[in-house]
Each structure stands twice: as structure tokens, then as C-alpha cells.
UniProtKB/TrEMBL annotation:
Organismal lineage: unclassified sequences, metagenomes, ecological metagenomes
Taxonomic source organism: marine sediment metagenome
Name assigned to this protein: Uncharacterized protein
Length: 65
């Protein structure tokens, strides 16, 4: 089966019908300094996979190598 670890799957994606959409812009937040040698920061962003037409994508399962 698909979860037994002995087979693989391939996804075929139409990039005109499926893309990554940005929900909120990238935000860079500096963290408290713990060293004078370098600065640390967190990067936040919210993205989601947008599928305009699910029929444009498919999955081939059960590939044995």
C-alpha cells in the first residue's frame, strides 16, 4: 500500500492551476542579543497552497522500484 514503505508516489501538478499564495507578508522579528558576534531573528509568514481546479492535479501511487 501507500504507507508500507515499499512503494512511492508521484504528484503531477499544473502550475497554472496550483500555486502558493501569501496570506500575510514576511515579517522579520529581531531576538534578544545573546552574543556580540552575531544577531538572531525569527522569520514569520503565512502561506497556503491554492488549487484553482483540482482536476488539473493527479497522483500516481504504488510505484515499486
Amino acid at each position: 500500500g501507500e504507507t508500507d514503505g515499499h512503494t512511492a508516489s508521484i504528484y503531477f501538478v499544473d502550475s497554472e492551476q496550483t500555486w502558493v499564495g501569501e496570506l500575510t507578508p514576511v515579517k522579520v522579528q529581531p531576538l534578544a542579543k545573546t552574543s556580540s558576534q552575531f544577531d538572531m531573528f525569527d522569520i514569520y509568514c503565512d502561506e497556503t497552497l491554492v488549487v484553482r481546479d483540482e482536476r488539473a492535479n493527479s497522483k500516481l501511487v504504488g510505484i515499486r522500484g
